[in-house]
Amino acid sequence: MKFSSLTLRTFTTVHTWVGLVAGFALFVAFYAGAITVFHHDLPLWQSPQGMDQPAQTLDDAQRLLDGVLAKHPDARKHVGMTFPGAETPQSIAYWQDAKGTWLFAWADHVDGSPTPPQAGLAELVNELHYTLGLPVAGIYLMGVVSLLYGLALLSGLVIHLPKLVGDLFALRPGRNLKQMWQDAHNVIGVLSLPFHLLFAVTGALLCLMFLQMAALNPLIYDGKLLAAIPGATDTAPIRAPANQPVRAGSLAMLHARSIAVANELGQKHFEPAYLKLANAGDANATIEITGDGGVSLGPLGAVALDANTGEVLHTQLPGQRDANHATLAAAYALHFGEFGNGWVPWLYFALGLGGAFLFYSGNLLWIESRRKRRQVVQGRAQINMARATVGVCIGLCVAVSAAFVSVQLLEHLAPAHADAGMRWTCFLVWGGCALWAALRAPSKAAVELLWAAAAVTALIPVVHGAMSGLWLWTSAARGYWPLFWVDGVALAMALGFAAMARATQRRAVNGDPNSVWAHTRA
Amino acid sequence: MWARALAGLLAGFFVAAAAAGLITWVPPGPWQAVIVPSMVAFIPLWMLAALWAFAFRTGLRAWLWLGATAASGFGLLWLLRHFDWVQ
Prior knowledge:
- By secondary structure, chain A is of the alpha+beta class.
- Chain A folds into four domains: 1-47 and 118-223 and 339-369, no CATH class; 49-117, no CATH class; 224-336, Nuclear Transport Factor 2, Chain: A (Roll), CATH 3.10.450; 379-522, no CATH class.
- Helix content of chain A is 63%, strand content 9%.
- The longest helix of chain A has 34 residues, at 380-413.
- The two termini of chain A are 51 Å apart.
- The mean pLDDT of chain A is 88.
- Chain B is mostly helical.
- Chain B has one domain (2-82).
- Chain B has three helices and no strands.
- The A-B interface holds A 6-7, 10-11, 13-14, 147, 150-151, 154-155, 158, 197, 200-201, 204-205, 209, 212-213, 215-216, 219-221, 225, 228-229, 231-233, 322-325, 327-328, 331 and B 1, 4, 13, 17-18, 20-21, 24-25, 31-40, 42-44, 46-48, 50-51, 54-55, 57, 77.
């Protein structure tokens, strides 16, 4: 495709500035997002008693549901619950009280807690992923960042389009370092472009959904959007309560019915994951059972039953659902990496870290292309950009690892303070690193913070072993694979940080002295 | 640059909204059947519209082109709905 040089220049400017503005937030989103892929494993790593607990049965789930419904009239209107299974060994029930606050109940805790059990570390990392840890406004900020991210991707594609194919596999190491960084930035950007476009779109959608609905409703949906949403996203039809109490069907019966119905409709595999129960105890109660249907881009399908008789009301199963449900299931599965086999989470982890690299290298390229090549002293803007990049990005890596270490220590020494202590540690360490980078020469701060990241990350498996007795080899011997992999990945990342620290150190000493990344030689 | 950015942000929003409206109403069947696809499509449409704004040489041109596109999109949508050609 041909573009005028003026257009290309404009798009380069757009790409640079949008990328810089959104890049810091995106680094956080991708680094934390890569770890969030393993959000089911982190609670087990945090408090491993879950590894030994026998998996709950449907009877346990029934007891929880009965307990919640007996105690909370609000839950009778609408309640959700996870089935005990591989992903959630323990059933959790959730509903909204009269004020609209979500409440959670599990095992013997049916009083209704405003926080889910074992939120801890996994929740902190997830919050960093979608809000940067900022309350309330964080999610909207990330929505805007996602939109800018999409703009950066598309403008980057346009700039690169004329030499896209020719340069795709060119990685030119050598004297021209900028060329190598540019090549690395381009190849990762192009090869993972589908993944990035997908995240720009689904990320913006997940964060801005309600604003988008409010803005578009009067414009194109005639103000009838809210009334139409349940039909487009739920499977169970809305039935008004008959105000006639009846004996509800058992969970075991409904669970078995949903599988049988799915099988009858040609779904060889259907593993119920969670339910939504409306008007519990009423003659018109409905239950919607969502389950993993196996081979599909949007594997989650749903069967809606009469909650008392088990009669089929409606289904939305892979291969035979409407456009709304198919799109929703696919968008959800694509964002959360919940499709395909066991390699997909690892692929998402790798692409997540690759994305973090993309934004980091983008900042480095900005600094490099403004480097004053004939003098040691560099411009203020370049130095400040280097400081911010090092402080925010590498600082985040140190802070996340510090949260892992602190939660493991506190979990065993002061369990009551584990959650708050971990959060304080994370944000204080992050702030401390940013401050350190602001005060030091960038070349020094980068090396020091990379070593700090290596050290703190290496501490993760050590502290975990010392506190719980579950060292890497103990976990492997007992078959505690989630714990083994958390510790193992931490170790691998510690080595990665150490390698980067060494490389940065070498560059600072031996590389071109006319750069923010060179140690100033007296 | 700022005028074009603003055109992309504001006029681009209406271009994308009109396009999403056509996606909602033009396919056969009731409009409720494509709510989710139209909501998903709106996001990349807005990004593309914003990018398009930067392809013009001045902010004024960007505003005129995007504004005219949005207006004709909404005009077409209104016509289709007014004569009950879509449901």
